[in-house]
Protein 1
Amino acid sequence: MLRLKILASVVPLAVFALVARGEFLPGPHPCIEAGGATVQIASIPWLAQLHVSFTDDPAAATVRVQVADSAETADFAVIDDIDDAEPGACEANGMPQLVAISATSGATDPVIYLSQDGPADYRIFVHSRSFSAREAAALIVGAHGGHRRLQAAAL
């Protein structure tokens, strides 16, 4: 009977610890460091401070992100396919801001239009095994608080 009581008290604590850390799924989640802050894709959407969604309609977007052809033309580049990458670089900076990619958007959530051309608020270049273009777009928008840059889509 004592074992059952111990098990009954330990299991909820273990579940709470997993939820508090936000890591139901093991392994690293895409993350970046921007301006001294860390932004990471949330493994559990309801723990995210920012939710973003994507649209195929440029008129419905609040932020436009262009996938650039080269790192030189991009505002943000993800190139992590090197053998000597520093493991855990994002974890060293404390608690990250979590960003979740949602299927639908709330009234104040950023809606991202991801395209290969056209005017853009941000330009990204992604050459990665661990990041998708959508994740990189969500992270760069999250790093800027979900807002457009000042010269938004004027280019």
Protein 2
Amino acid sequence: MHSHSPFQGLNKCYASSLFLLCLSLFSSLLQGQNPYPAAAQSKSILILNGTAHLGNGQVIENAAIGFRNGKIDLVADATTIKLAANAYDTTISAVGKQIYPGFIAPNTTIGLIEIEAVRATVDDRETGAINPNVRALTTFNSDSKIIPTMRTNGVLMAQIAPHGGLLAGTSSVMEMDGWNWEDMAYRTDDGVYMSWPKQQSRTYTDDGPGPLMPNNDFSKQVVDLQKFFTDAKAYCQSEKNEEKNIRFEALRNIFNGTENLYIRADNVKEITESIDFANAYGIKNITLVGAMDSWMVTPLLKSNQVKVILGRVHSLPDKNDDAVDLPFRVPFLLHQAGIVYCLCQEGDQEYHQNRNLPFNAGTTAAYGLSKEEALSSITLNAAKILGIDKTTGSLEPGKDATLFISGGDALDMRTNQVQAAFIRGKKLDMNNEQKALYERYKKKYGQ
């Protein structure tokens, strides 16, 4: 005789419900999948009669932009050239449209953070204070749903940078299309990110920023950096070391000048101290990150050939007595002083907002810069700072065909409509989950 459990029917019901729930979640995941990575360019393409903004300050009305095998081979005025009827396999009419080089977002955590509240999806930092050997690209999530939303606004390349501690690790430049990080890596290990110790800091709560408090560990942190750099330089200068030190090895290209030392520093004192520190170790390629006070020390930056990745323009000034529009004007002040700079969008909790990078550039065009100068701050200037300007960052023959066509001004959030985009000649699928949701609920509410 078999006994009958009172929970037997309940268990069957539970199993059935669990199966349906899993099926529903799986279906939702399938619907929300990212577009497939694009195939390599197989046919030559000519974009004709659009307005081309080259990224180097030049504009061509009625332009002819041609590319084959992933490389640009024609940039010309369409009214002054003659082309054979079969010169290109495919012709795209861009009448009334704008053509731009792909925008480049530096200092991002794209692919390193997906959902900030879910710890398992946060991979932008390592434990410990000094980790220059940590490589950001090895934790890069090529399936991030944030990537397709960036491409929608023309951001086709990004530098992924680690955070945390004094020496956070090495950054890399990634293309925003590919099956995995190996496919998407454009320049691996382009530099090491360092955060200069702050003498004062403040905490933030739901009620707003708290008061500035002294950093009691400031002197110790500076000494720790000095000791590490001294030991690392001695190691790198030695012709023979008894054993390999991977943390010291990570600084080898910083000392020989082939990679950037990116220094996160904000106020004048931090900027001055960090530059003096880098000079003491003979480091030549220095780039400040954040650096909203950089406009106050432009002679120091210029004499040391220091480049700047400016923090988010759409922010409030850091000091109570600063003009409220100062963050909008800093790019013009640096440009006026002859400093090589670019813009980044990322600030605290802003990892998902890099798609708004072009609109930050658009704001600077209303505060002193011309539209083409503002464009350079997220194209060619960014490429120069990241060391990739020989192959990308502007529309020039011989460079990668990483570009897009917009129905309006790409620096204006009201008119920017990216209608086609290419990364090294590969035509991208411009769909993303947010567009899918828009179409879904547009139908639901009969719009």
